[in-house]
Amino acid sequence: MEPTPKQRPHHAYPDHWEADVVLRDGGTARIRPITTDDAERLVSFYEQVSDESKYYRFFAPYPRLSDRDVHRFTHHDYVDRVGLAVTIGGEFIGTVRYDRINDQGRPASAPADEAEVAFLVQDAHQGRGVASALLEHIAAVARERGIRRFAAEVLPANNKMIKVFRDAGYTQQRSFEDGSVHLTLDLEPTEKSLAVQRGREQRAEARSVQRLLAPGSVAVIGTGRTPGGVGRTVLRNLLAAGFTGRTYAVNRAFDEGLTTLDGVPAHRSLGEIDEQVDLAVIAVPAHRVPEAVADCGEHGVQGLVVLSAGYAEQGSAGRELQRELVRQARSYGMRIIGPNAFGIINTAESVRLNASLAPESPARGRIGLFTQSGAIGIALLSGLHRRGAGLSSFISAGNRADVSGNDFLQYSFEDPDTDVALLYLESLGNPRKFTRLARRTAAVKPVVVVKGARHSGTNPPGHAVPVSRIPDATVSALMRQAGVIRVDTVTEMVDAGLLLAGQPLPAGPRVAILGNSESLGLLTYDACLAEGLRPRPPVDLTTGASPQDFRDALAEALADGTCDAVIVTAIPWVGENGEAETGDGEVLAAALRGAAAGGPAKPVAVVHVEIGGLAEALAAASSTAAPRTRPTTLAAQPSGPSAAATPPATTETATEETEEGTEPPARPGRIPAYPAAERAVRAMAEAVKYAQWRRQAATPGKVPEFLDETTDEPGAAALIDTLLGATPDPRGRPLTHDEARELLGRYGIPVRPTLPAPDPEAAVAAAARLGYPVALKTTAPHLRHRADLGGVRLDLADEDALRRAYGEFTELLGKPAELLPVVQSMAPRGVDTVVRASIDAAAGAILSFGLAGAPSELLGDTAHRLVPATDRDAAELIRSIKAAPVLFGWRGSAPVDTPALEELLLRLSRLVDDHPEVVSVALEPVVVAPAGLTVLGASVRLAPPPPRGDLGPRRLPNY
Q: How much is the pLDDT for 783?
């Protein structure tokens, strides 16, 4: 909304303050600055506020606003006087205002850094978290305008408002003066305020998805009058699944006399339905969707599933239609799945929702599935069904213009019916937030991800999100750091999901292999070695082994304390008549289940070849449907600020109640079966790595403070401000060698000096100053760090050697003006490495490490971690590259000083975390010797920092 001309002389309308937010109950609302055009909205809003709320706001009876009040509350300069409103359907439901004041509490301008703040929320919307959301946004606005503290006067009886301030997490002071509570809030974000903000975000976004997946009523808009078509198909699937709520068919083309369709009430519009509809499935052509959305919004629909195509997948015009669709839906407080969606499924017995195009609803299970592709969704549903796996929930988001994989993670984190979250993603709208949510979710339940469109460098059609330039290998490393199980194919995702949903996590990498085929056992053994597992020699039961032999061998392997997991291989066994018996897999399945149920809790997987009925029998037993915790609801979860860090009871920790003196029920034999050894082993290897990550995550690493004389954060900040200047170039600027040395030195990272050598005499003078032996290097971009091309000459012991090398330089490579040669003193011998840090606008700051030269540049052997890195991250970083043995004494060489290398990584991490203006750093080479290290080269680039949306107030993305 643009300001009127009267406002422009004060300050331009700050449209970047506009934001869509998810409220506590899962509905959405819009926060925006108040303008002079809002006078009628403000008066109407105030008329709907109770006398009690008005009294709490003005400390006296205040039945109506005067013209002067309306003018004051709608005219702002957006600097010293700011007002924000929360709107739904274009109408105000809450407001907040600040006025800058001086030390005496009188109106003031900058440099005064305190403001008085006041809130008013319509009574019908109190309890939805409106005031909390407003406080986050008005605090961010105030910080932007140089305000550091809020002051508020609150009546003692206004407990709700006092609680809003108290629970915000800001540093605050409270006193009682003249019959009111005087509150002062320091607006600098704290660890607690950020945790409170993210906890509220998690509960609100989870609730918004829960409202979509568990509606009390569903209307299918666009239901065809004849069988067939998208709308009629969804209606049929809803009925076939046994949806427990109320279902309605809606089509404006229905005859006036038509009252039912397929046994459900039929209506021409939502206005004809006597009750509020919770979920609308829209299956009309794209040009009719706005009319349907308006009808839904005006009649209180809570969420939409838009199956209609014709949006961003068809180009720029469709992308704008998609944006308008999201704006329209959010203006009414609704969230959207789609457009171009395949639908949603919830198998909970209390819901039984199949609002999708899937002809058969999957069995109830413990796997949650999110996919951005309808075709992949169909394949996954089919694959899981074929292998007997059940689902807890399914969302196929299509163009995912609103509800995304991040929202699904928020929901899965606290959903008691989901033990494993599977996600097929083609784009990451907010990678920084995704890794944060994934890390928290993976700490309590596995998250398995397949990332499509990995190498295209663009988003798939329909995905209007920022494109990250991070290489796929880096994305994979960052996912691993967050505990995400990253696999390459949807088949691998199903394989891993079945094992993780049905089996306990392995305690280590030691794998026992047993079966009735020596060859299949050897294939499994080789696959284990290839995946980094530690297999024991296979136990061959021979082809004559009976199901009882399998049971005994499995029981023995599970009882063996030297193995952490078991893989059973089976081919058709030979009966007494000498013929292979391919049938009766149920007998073998029962034997394996019996052994698994009676032994210690270790994962078991089965590799089978043509044993009829075995996979089906194991699938029936391994159904992921049996709940392992007492069912709870999202509403039952803790609602305090600490709830963000408190996951619901999980299957690993919950116990079943039993009568006194009785044994708990036997552990079900949930044993996944695989048609190939490689698939079973790969799934087991992923479980081993994930279990190791879980154990380490239980005691996370620390980010050292380095509060010593070698770290000068204020000095670095002042230097950066000086180097960038008062009006920095948005493109940034590279630092000179001396500037980079000075900045890095503020964080205890010394860079060995270099001196320019534009001619032989200057080179000799430089060497005399630095001391022999020296190195002569070119700094020309095409020859830098290229010793193989002659761009570096080392161990020049005296003046003659230096002059000779200089002559060869200029003779072979070019003129000094082209080569830009420098002289540098020699460093102790060691291993050449490269350390980098860079900031991606979407993913954040990334720390990288590898060996210099071919290992990192040619083979891509580089490891990555998100900043800020912990001491554990630094240790893992240098050990996770394939060439890591070179650092630890490979082939008899002396081990290098890895503690010094870890400290360097931590110092660089701290530098870029403290100063986001440092957008890239490359330390190359870093020579790591048996004692200490030397940084021989450094390049640093400064630029105005990219915005950090994850640190600001909660807001939904607008793509």
A: 72
